[in-house]
Design brief:
The complex is a heterodimer of chains A (about 375) and B (about 475).
Chain A (H helix, E strand, L loop, with lengths): L6 H10 L4 E4 L13 E4 L6 E5 L4 E5 L4 H10 L2 E2 L8 H4 L7 H6 L7 H4 L2 H4 E7 L5 E5 L11 H5 L8 E8 L1 E2 L3 E8 L3 H12 L5 E7 L8 E8 L1 H16 L4 E5 L2 H12 L10 E6 L5 H11 L4 E5 L4 E6 L13 E6 L2 H6 L8 H14 L12
Parallel strand pairs in A: 1-2
Antiparallel strand pairs in A: 3-4, 4-8, 5-9, 6-7, 6-8, 10-12, 10-13, 11-12, 14-16, 14-17, 15-16
Chain B lengths: L7 H5 L1 H11 L5 E2 L22 E3 L4 H14 L3 E4 L16 E4 L6 E5 L4 E5 L4 H8 L4 E2 L12 H7 L6 H4 L2 H4 E7 L5 E5 L10 H5 L8 E8 L1 E2 L4 E8 L2 H13 L6 E6 H11 L8 E8 L2 H16 L5 E4 L3 H12 L1 H8 L1 E4 L9 H15 L3 E6 L7 E5 L6 H18 L18 H4 L2 H14 L13 H11 L1
Classes of the chains: A alpha+beta (about 375), B alpha+beta (about 475).
């Protein structure tokens, strides 16, 4: 394994590579079609080079541990708005999650529905392309339309377009209060209706999730509100009023520890941790989610389900080797947890229609003409 | 402004090209008369003009595809045009180009409140997207100043922002999917009513690509419920530094105002004389707006005013009525008009790190003295997106050139302090030649490589974004 200690070394290594490379941050997200090649780790490119709390910006080397960044931000009462999940328990991996890995996988948690994904907080990148050229795009300011936005393209490109060496991110102040409106006993269809009602209200919901089988085995729907103390109390009451009309038992949880634990449970998909079976992440129009899940349940036994993003993200656990796309009539699905064999036989990422696949292939050929960076990982 | 030499073959084949376009479009959708095409000779950057070969006004994605097939086969450059409000010359024609205007494509195709999106044809204006969902209490968040006139097509091309993007983000953060026609006439669907991409984030690179990768004909946009209410507060300070520090402290406090607008003394004086909004005569003025219920607004403003008081403001004005709110916004909203009353002006939009605000304003003041041209600053302070307005006299020989040189110096200053050339207007032709100040040759090269993939013949929106010298080899190879 190669662990270059600076960007120049990394660039030189890529330039002189004579075979495929397997790019890795902290190694916590073993996702994608298995890739052959020499392992290239960015873990030694580490450190926060700039943090301006008053400008809400942080710049860090790609290998900087996520925990280090979150710790530094927390000391100033700030955080990464997009709430990246920790994949370790779900995937059974060890290691230290790095900020470069988070960006490369565009990891975005429950707050995505309000503040956007990791790609929406990403202000700039530096990366090494497949020829070993050091390139940059974007910068460290919040508004930037200077040239093409390759920042978004790099987020979620899983190391297939370049090896990230530095990222700049917009950060967010941690609100003083948080609350969670809980509804017990809703069907999937009613839960999506409830989440849509809350998200379609003026009350600035920052999380909307539904577990058909929650911690106690019963259905629970969760609506999160964050902000000033008085605001959270007011909005929780308004949302309660709204959801009581739709039926079900409505409660408000205001203990920040309990609310935090509840949303960490959603974020890290605790429901499916340490269990057998493949795990899929499915993007749908929220109102399509329950029908997709019903079709899946009709066909397969032992389907576990967790709805996040107001129903727009459906986590599915099914028997190994099941391709859930057979029941998916609109949207796209990504296989997040599966054996190497499964990941070699079922496409991990949603196969693209031919014209889009041609564009993606064309871009990869420009960024990595030799096809050596995480080749084939995305299909 | 240097533009590429028009392709003589295209000019010579005008009659055939127009005839082929008429075969695929209704008769009134093809404009080729030399006088009539003059309506498309420029956009809102009026200093530069060039009548196109022809203009076409398709009404559907299918018609756009048919047009592009003809132009692709005939090697005709195509300049996509939304409403023509670009301040950067983003839809400035070349003599051998066909203007593809989406003005007839204004339909709402689908409105879905449960899943919170709207799908529209991209000729629809920004404001009328909000208008279409207003009755249900919803709105489309990005709000460029030109929102009454500007089209969604142009918003996507330039990744437009607005005064309220501090809270809601810019176009790219609110765009979920597009129907796009590539230069060879192929229709592609990218994204949709989903919150993430299934593969590479192609949507992310299309938004802000200035119409150079494809013609976006339909868009799926995120809509939000309107807040219960909004209220501004006005603060006056006796120095730019103090106002800048106040902005920083508000942002750090954890309250996210929907807007923080900043005006400096020259701008305050001009707007006061023009609009009489009753602004205090001070060095720097902030307008901070927050949203929520009445009680929530009270609570947020209480915090914000407490922060402001620690900076010894010369004026703090809270609004107690809709009328007072309107008055607080009046000066800001008439700032451009006020400056225009004094003289011709050029509006820049570089972005800087918020912490560099006092330094940059001081340097702009020094440059203003050096060049002998007045400048007023009004901008979105929360995100560092500046709008220096340089005053000049278009009738005075040499003044425009001097103004452009001054503008270029300001933009280089923005880059030097860690910012960028343009925060929301786009590069267009206006800042094309300054790209080398922000990007190294290889950084531009990889962007141009993206264009190679989408538009191998380099026919879409020619001569924008990249310095001609940088794109020369590629354009020649494509021909």
């Amino acid at each position: 394994m190669m662990r270059p200690s600076n960007e120049a070394e990394l660039a030189e290594f890529v330039a002189s590579a004579d075979g495929p490379l397997r790019i890795e941050g902290g190694g916590t997200r073993d996702i994608g079609r298995p890739v052959a090649g020499t392992k290239l780790s960015t873990a030694n490119l580490s450190g926060i080079s700039l943090y301006e709390p008053g400008a809400l910006t942080v710049v860090a080397a790609a290998g900087t541990p996520l925990a280090e960044i979150e710790g530094k931000l927390a000391a100033e009462g700030q955080r990464l708005a997009f709430e990246p999940m920790d994949h370790r328990e779900l995937l059974g991996t060890a290691g230290t999650s790095t900020i470069g890995g988070v960006v490369a996988a565009n990891v975005s948690g429950p707050r995505r529905i309000q503040v956007g994904a990791c790609r929406d907080s990403l202000l700039g990148v530096r990366f090494v392309d497949g020829m070993g050229r050091v390139l940059k795009n974007g910068g460290r300011v919040m508004k930037n339309v200077t040239g093409y936005d390759l920042v978004k393209l790099m987020a979620g490109s899983w190391g297939t377009l370049g090896v990230l060496t530095e990222v700049s991110l917009k950060v967010q102040a941690i609100p003083e209060a948080v609350g969670c409106v809980l509804v017990n006993g809703l069907s999937d269809v009613d839960a999506v209706a409830a989440m849509s009602a809350a998200l379609g209200s003026p009350y600035d919901v920052t999380g909307a999730a539904h577990a058909p089988s929650g911690v106690d085995g019963h259905p629970v729907t969760m609506i999160r509100i964050e902000g000033l103390e008085a605001s959270v109390a007011y909005r929780a009451a308004k949302i309660t009023e709204l959801l009581e009309k739709l039926g079900g038992e409505v409660l408000v949880e205001r203990d920040p520890t309990k609310v935090g634990a509840g949303w960490a449970w959603v974020r890290d998909v605790a429901l499916m941790q340490g269990q057998a079976g493949d795990v899929w992440r499915v993007s749908v129009k929220p109102s399509d989610g329950p029908e997709f899940v019903a079709k899946l349940r009709a066909k397969h036994a032992d389907v576990s389900v967790l709805y996040d993003w107001g129903g727009g993200l459906v986590w599915i656990q099914v028997a190994e080797g099941t391709d859930v796309r057979a029941e998916l009539f609109a949207g796209h699905a990504t296989l997040i947890r599966g054996s190497e064999l499964t990941r070699s036989t079922i496409p991990v990422f949603q196969p693209e229609p031919a014209p889009l696949a041609a564009l993606s292939t064309g871009l990869r050929a420009k960024f990595d003409p030799r096809g050596i960076l995480n080749a084939g990982l995305m299909g | 402004m240097d533009m590429p030499i028009p392709n003589p073959e295209v000019l010579a084949n005008k009659a055939r090209i127009v005839a082929r376009l008429k075969e695929v479009l209704p008769p009134d959708a093809v404009i080729s008369d030399e006088v009539e095409v003059r309506a498309y000779e420029c956009d809102a950057l009026t200093a530069y003009r060039c009548p196109p070969l022809a203009a076409v006004l398709p009404a559907s994605t299918e018609e756009v595809a048919a047009i592009l097939k003809v132009c692709h086969a005939e090697n005709v450059p195509v300049v996509p045009r939304g409403a023509g409000t670009s301040l950067a010359g983003g839809s400035m024609p070349t003599a051998d180009s066909v203007i593809l205007g989406v003005a007839r494509m204004t339909e709402v195709l689908e409105t879905d409140y449960e899943n919170r999106f709207i799908r529209v044809q991209t000729g629809r204006t920004n404001l009328s997207v909000s208008g279409a969902v207003e009755e249900e209490g919803f709105f489309y968040a990005p709000d460029p100043s030109s929102q009454l006139a500007c089209a969604i097509a142009g918003n996507i091309a330039m990744n437009s922002g607005g005064a309220h993007c501090l809270k809601y983000g810019v176009t790219t953060n609110n765009l979920m999917g597009v129907t796009m026609v590539t230069m060879n006439g192929e229709v592609v669907e990218i994204g949709g009513a989903y919150l993430d991409a299934g593969g590479l984030d192609l949507l992310g690179v299309i938004c802000g690509s200035e119409g150079q990768l494809g013609v976006v004909t339909e868009a799926t946009l995120r809509i939000l419920h309107k807040p219960e209410g909004a209220r501004p507060v006005l603060m006056g300070f006796d120095s730019n530094e103090v106002a800048g520090q106040c902005v920083s402290d508000i942002i750090k406090s954890g309250i996210i105002p929907v807007a923080i607008e900043f005006m400096d003394r020259p701008c305050i004086r001009a707007t006061e004389a023009f609009a009489g909004a009753g602004y205090p005569d001070c060095e720097a003025l902030l307008i901070v707006e927050v949203e929520g219920s009445d009680a929530e607004i009270d609570a947020q403003l209480e915090r914000i005013l407490a922060i402001a008081r620690t900076h010894n403001p010369v004026e703090l004005r809270e609004s107690t009525s809709a009328d007072e709110s309107a008055r607080i916004w009046l000066g800001r909203k008439s700032a451009f008009g006020a400056m225009g009353q004094i003289n011709d002006y050029m509006c820049l939009d570089g972005t800087i790190p918020v912490s560099q605000l006092p330094y940059v304003l001081r340097r702009i003041g020094e440059l203003s003295t050096d060049y002998g041209l007045d400048v007023g600053n009004v901008f979105h302070a929360g995100d560092g997106n500046m709008h220096p307005l340089i005053l000049f006299d278009a009738n005075k020989p040499g003044d425009l050139e001097k103004c452009e040189a001054f503008g270029a110096d300001i933009l280089r200053l923005c880059v030097e302090v860690g910012g960028c050339l343009t925060g929301e207007h786009g590069v267009g032709i206006e800042k094309r030649d300054l790209m080398v100040d922000q990007y190294l040759p290889e950084d531009l090269d990889i962007q141009m490589a993206v264009k190679d993939v989408f538009d191998p013949k380099w026919l879409l929106n020619p001569a924008k974004v990249f310095p001609l010298a940088a794109s020369d080899v590629r354009r020649m190879a494509a021909e």
